[in-house]
């Protein structure tokens, strides 16, 4: 009789582990970041399309003199350039491996926006979901 109770418990445990693993590696193709620095603030929303190796963005910023933007890892190394120069909207080709990392671990990356006098001083950490543009 004890064996009958153990089998359903083992099955339930296996299901719980599988669900936890699946949620830990969930893909989040919609990403956002709240940006601040240089006395400015704003947001960026990103949309990843792994099938096309493409990352699209929309910045909502009031800052002037912006020269470029990139996504950086926790060590500050650039993993994706958001265009050859700053543009409030656009798309860029990004490797599938980088897109997978961004989608599964967004908090490990930041968006850096450069201006002529302050390279990378306007920045914010990525998160899953869209950034709210109404409370800037």
What are the low-pLDDT stretches, counting only 5+ consecutive residues below 50? 9-24
Helix/strand-derived category reads alpha+beta
Instruction: Please bin the fraction of helical residues.
Output: 10-25%
Main sheet specs: 5 strands, antiparallel
H/E topology pattern: HEEEEEEHEEE
* Average pLDDT for all residues: 84
Strand order of the largest sheet: 6-3-2-1-9
Tell me about this structure.
The protein contains 2 helices and 9 strands. By secondary structure, the chain is of the alpha+beta class. The chain has a single domain (30-128), classed as Sandwich (Immunoglobulin-like). A hairpin with a 2-residue loop joins strand 1 (30-37) and strand 2. It starts with a helix and ends in an 8-residue tail after the last strand.
Secondary structure blueprint with pairings:
Blueprint (H helix, E strand, L loop, with lengths): L1 H23 L5 E8 L2 E10 L4 E8 L4 E8 L4 E4 L7 E5 L2 H9 L4 E7 L6 E4 L1 E2 L8
Antiparallel strand pairs: 1-2, 1-9, 2-3, 3-6, 4-5, 4-7, 7-8
Give a quick set of tags describing it.
136 residues, alpha+beta, Immunoglobulin-like, 5-stranded antiparallel sheet, 2 helices, 41% strand
């Amino acid at each position: 009789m004890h064996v009958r109770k153990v089998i359903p418990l083992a099955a339930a445990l296996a299901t719980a582990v599988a669900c936890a693993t699946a949620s830990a590696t969930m893909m989040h193709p919609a990403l956002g970041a709240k940006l601040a620095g240089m006395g400015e603030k704003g947001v960026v929303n990103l949309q990843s399309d792994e099938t096309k190796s493409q990352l699209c963005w929309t910045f909502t910023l009031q800052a002037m003199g912006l020269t470029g933007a990139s996504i950086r890892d926790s060590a500050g190394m650039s993993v994706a350039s958001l265009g050859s120069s700053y543009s409030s909207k656009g798309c860029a080709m990004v490797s599938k491996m980088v897109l997978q990392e961004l989608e599964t671990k967004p908090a490990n990356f930041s968006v850096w926006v450069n201006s002529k006098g302050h390279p990378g001083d306007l920045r914010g950490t990525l998160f899953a979901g869209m950034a709210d543009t109404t409370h800037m």
